[in-house]
Write a structure and sequence with these properties.
Elements lengths: L10 H5 L1 H11 L4 H5 L5 E4 L14 E16 L4 E9 L4 E7 L4 H6 L5 E11 L2 E5 L2 E4 L8 H11 L1 E4 L8 H11 L12 H7 L4 H9 L4 H32 L12 H7 L7 H14 L6 E6 L5 H14 L3 E5 L3 H15 L16 E5 L5 H13 L2 E6 L13 E7 L6 H8 L7 E6 L5 H7 L4 E5 L9 E7 L4 H16 L3 E5 L11 H16 L8 H10 L7 E4 L5 H12 L5 E4 L12 E6 L7 H8 L9 E7 L6 H11 L3 H11 L4 H6 L16 H17 L7 H10 L2 H9 L1
Parallel strand pairs: 4-6, 9-14, 9-15, 10-12, 10-13, 11-12, 13-14, 16-21, 17-19, 17-20, 18-19, 20-21
Antiparallel strand pairs: 1-8, 2-3, 2-5, 3-4, 5-6, 5-7
Helix pairs in contact: 8-9, 9-25, 9-26, 10-12, 11-12, 16-25
Length: about 750
């Protein structure tokens, strides 16, 4: 729950302009309600020491620790001074560094044995973690005289709330701001129906807000958390339940495949048997298509589990029933790839009305933004006359000019890449709402599916088709062991010598990607900042391809592929790579989804630490698609003890996408999940963590369904309606309405 109308007072009024500005820009907090729902991440007790051993790199942190020693070092022939302070908490030690004139105050105040709260960004220097120029506030008897000392002493004496902070606004400053707005908590409108609240023994909302910010005991924190988690889960599940209820009332044309029709003809010519999983999921989809209200189904599955085959059979079933089916792909490379593979799988069945085409066949057209005028005109004509039963395209499908004869099914591939408006525009092209099948190759744990896609029925493909080969994955620590990287390029050569092909993936395109001077200046500044932060800019396709062609992969046929190439050039490179005319493809993540070249057996991912867990799993799925085993090498400069290395080790240790998605979510901050799905809208999750709170989400879903079934308009629950309005500001409401 974001906020309720009684708490909409702007923070600027209570806290002053500068503080309110930092809160708005860096923490997304604008009103009193926003700040009351900015909960402490954790709490420290006086005498309790935080674990320095578990600090995350590159994050703003607040720690409570004791000074172990302090030393001043001189450099530049005595002209420069550096203060190094070691702090300890019993679990580990951390170095603080201060330079120049900034050393005098801490040198005087932070004496060995004193205790303080320290805040700053964790960085790595000489392979050791450190905080450079941290801000600090002394604790307890060691605190300096003055009003701040009294505040700090009172926090230290009780439970000290440690808030998610940012540069320029440390945890203790946020705590003071919360003190200023805390009296307003009494006006918070309670969204939970009274019977539900009493039945589950929850404290009222105003009490929960007071207890979460200023607890006297650990039991206070537990009471508050249980209550606030329920608010988030319940209000969100009510929103999703209302949407499911509304969808169930919509009319749709039932689409049942005709016996002996296009689908049967396609199945008869398949050279393999569908997996049990594919057959089961197909049955679920066909049952939905046969109903007279729109299907809303999420099809998720492992990389390479055969989702496209399932989606194609659903599309053919709709064509059999007299309708048309559209597949929306996020990139031209993927749209072209889908079009090519679907027409190849269908053979003469994809040549309906053409010389040599099958009587039962239909036309399969491609529609992308870069097509020439004559081809585009013909595609549009085929769609409006119904000549084309299947269309595969990018967002070009959404344009006003595109009209369908009878759109019966929309398949959205890689759902997370499309804005809500784009999906809605395509669905609006049906005479009645078409059926919707959403596909994602990023496996989603059940809790996330329930929270983010709670309005969709979910089908899961977790079996790989027969003939798929295992993929071996290894981390290559290029900085620690340069000879490992040299061996990686030897392995690529060995694969090519066996007649196979390889991908090399880089995070950036290269110099050519910065179009105008403004962008170049921006890129240059970023690169300079990165270098001063002891971090080089990410490796780029153009430079890496050049170095490989002149160095370790000299003599091999190397090509590049990235998103800023002309569509025809991209298609040409992919076609030649698919035909085996290119040995090594150096690319950005444009190859992440849908690219299917069974002969490609090796992948080297440069700067692998700069990619997310799910993305690495997606990329890895491009190899091992044929009968030969796959190899994925994750190259990184990160040191062994860093969280980034731990993430890469996790990816290398399992091929289970569902397990990896759990790891990914556990490592991310709370709320990212929903924020990503909510079309860029800031997440409503503050307290609820979708991975850990499975039981809360499931129980809240049951209660929400019961409430909405009894009172779809929430006419008897005005407080819940108010909370929903706060959660569903205009953007979010559209998101849920459109789906």
């Amino acid at each position: 729950m974001d906020r309720v109308p009684a708490l909409e007072e702007p923070l600027k009024k209570l806290l002053g302009g500068p503080t309110a500005k930092v809160m708005a820009e860096h923490l997304g907090l604008h009103t009193v309600g926003d700040l009351l729902h900015h909960y402490p991440r954790r709490y420290e007790e006086r005498g309790q020491l935080t674990k320095l051993a578990e600090l995350p790199l590159d994050e703003d942190v607040t720690v409570v620790a004791q000074v172990a020693d302090a030393r001043v070092h001189t450099f530049n022939g005595g002209r420069g001074q550096r203060l190094e302070i070691t702090i300890t908490d019993g679990s580990g030690r951390l170095q603080l560094v201060f330079f120049g004139r900034g050393i005098h105050k801490p040198h005087k105040e932070l004496l060995p044995g004193s205790r303080a709260m320290f805040a700053g960004k964790v960085s790595m220097f000489n392979r050791r973690m450190q905080l450079a120029h941290p801000t600090y506030a002394k604790l307890g008897a060691d605190a300096a005289e003055g009003e701040d000392a009294a505040d700090i002493d009172s926090w230290a004496g009780a439970l000290i709330p440690i808030y998610p902070a940012c540069k320029g606004l440390e945890s203790w400053k946020i705590a003071k701001a919360v003190d200023a707005v805390l009296p307003s908590a009494r006006e918070a409108v309670d969204p939970l129906p009274g019977a539900l609240r009493e039945g589950r023994g929850f404290v009222p909302l105003p009490e929960a807000l007071l207890k979460v910010h200023r607890p006297h005991t650990r039991a206070d924190i537990e009471d508050a958390r249980q209550r606030l988690k329920w608010d988030e889960a319940f209000v969100l599940q009510v929103a999703l339940a209302r949407r499911r209820h509304a969808d169930a009332q919509l009319p749709a044309v039932a689409r049942r495949p005709a016996p002996g029709g296009l689908l049967d003809a396609f199945d008869a010519k398949l050279p393999f048997t569908l997996t049990e999983g594919q057959q089961k999921v197909s049955r679920e989809i066909f049952d939905d298509l046969a109903t007279e209200h729109p299907m809303h189904r999420l099809l998720q599955g492992e990389v390479g589990s055969g989702k496209t085959m399932v989606a194609l059979r659903a599309m053919l079933a709709v064509v059999d029933a007299g309708g048309q089916a559209a597949m929306l792909a996020p990139t031209e490379v993927l749209a072209q790839q889908h079009h090519r593979s679907i027409t190849e799988m269908m053979g003469e069945l994809a040549e309906g009305g053409m010389l040599g085409g099958a009587d039962l066949g239909t036309k399969v057209v491609l529609l992308t933004g870069s097509m020439g005028v004559p081809a585009r005109r013909q595609a549009l004509l085929d769609l409006v006359t119904g000549e084309a039963g299947l269309v595969i395209g990018t967002h070009a499908l959404i344009e006003d000019k595109v009209q369908f004869h009878d759109l019966g099914l929309v398949v959205v591939d890689e759902q997370h890449r499309f804005g809500v408006e784009q999906r809605d525009a395509l669905r609006g092209k049906g005479k009645q709402p078409p059926h919707l099948l959403v596909m994602t190759a990023t496996p989603i744990p059940r809790t996330v599916a329930m929270t983010v896609f709670g309005d969709l029925e979910t089908s899961v493909l977790d079996q790989l088709p027969a003939g798929r080969s295992p993929i071996a994955s290894h981390v290559v620590p290029a900085q620690d062991k340069p000879h490992f990287l040299a061996r990686a390029w030897e392995r690529v050569r060995e694969e090519v010598d066996k007649g196979h092909q390889a991908y090399v993936v880089c995070p950036r395109i290269g110099d050519a990607e910065e179009g105008d001077e403004k962008k170049t200046a921006k890129a240059k500044k970023k690169a300079e900042e990165a270098e001063t932060a002891d971090k080089r800019p990410p490796l780029a396709v153009i430079e890496v391809a050049d170095q490989l062609a002149r160095g370790p992969l000299a003599g091999l046929r190397t090509e590049i592929l990235h998103g800023r190439m002309q569509p025809d050039d991209k298609d040409d490179v992919m076609r030649r790579f698919g035909a085996g005319e290119v040995d090594v493809l150096v690319a950005t993540t444009v190859i992440e989804v849908g690219v299917n070249v069974p002969n490609a057996t090796a992948m080297v991912i440069m700067d692998a630490d700069r990619f997310g867990v799910s993305q690495l799993h997606q990329l890895r799925g491009r190899v091992g698609r044929g009968s030969a085993p796959g190899l994925c090498l994750l190259v990184t400069d990160m040191p062994e003890a860093s969280p980034a290395r731990a993430r890469l080790t996790a990816v290398a240790s399992t091929l289970d996408g569902f397990e990896l998605s759990r790891i990914d979510l556990e490592q991310r901050r709370e709320g990212d999940v929903l924020g990503q799905a909510q079309s860029g809208v800031r997440s409503s999750l503050r307290m609820l963590t979708v991975i850990d709170d499975e039981e809360v989400i499931a129980a809240a879903r049951e209660e929400a369904v019961a409430v909405v079934t009894a009172d779809p308009g929430l006419d008897h629950l005005p407080e819940l309606r108010t909370a929903l309005d706060a959660l569903l500001d205009k953007d979010r409401e559209q998101y849920l309405d459109k789906g």
